[in-house]
Amino acid sequence: MDFKEYIRVIPDFPQPGISFKDITTLLNNGEKYREAINELKRMVADLNIDLIAGPEARGFVVGAPLAYALGVGFIPIRKSGKLPYKTIEVGYDLEYGSDRLAMHSDAIKPGQNVLIADDLLATGGTISTSVKLVRELGGNVVGTAFLIELTDLNGREKLPGIDVYSLLKY
To answer: Is 95 a catalytic residue?
Structure first.
């Protein structure tokens, strides 16, 4: 299945020269959204996953249904100050600035296998920060999964030794 026909490309958003890949058109189509999650499930099914972690907010719309499909737990990775319990935090650079990500300090037991899922792999900043959070709690990152990978931004380079599974590549 070529899911690209269900992704809306918006030129010059959020700034000139950027070609934004809008997944809301895929999410809006229940049948194709389900097929996309099921295809990601097939790609990662043999990884012995205990948990899936996803950075807010679009990582939730990929990671949570993928966790459900695989029958494993889901860990929300949030921006600083958004989680109610004790957290660990790591700072990172975005394509357009910087921020901090947080995870509950008891979200992962040492040795658990964690897949990190998000909508898009661009420069790799958000995902490499998510990897640091998982590893700080003793989790084993068994891979990363994305609806879209922007190959010309070389995000994979920030994930050495980690398998990257991408449904679509631009």
So the answer is: yes
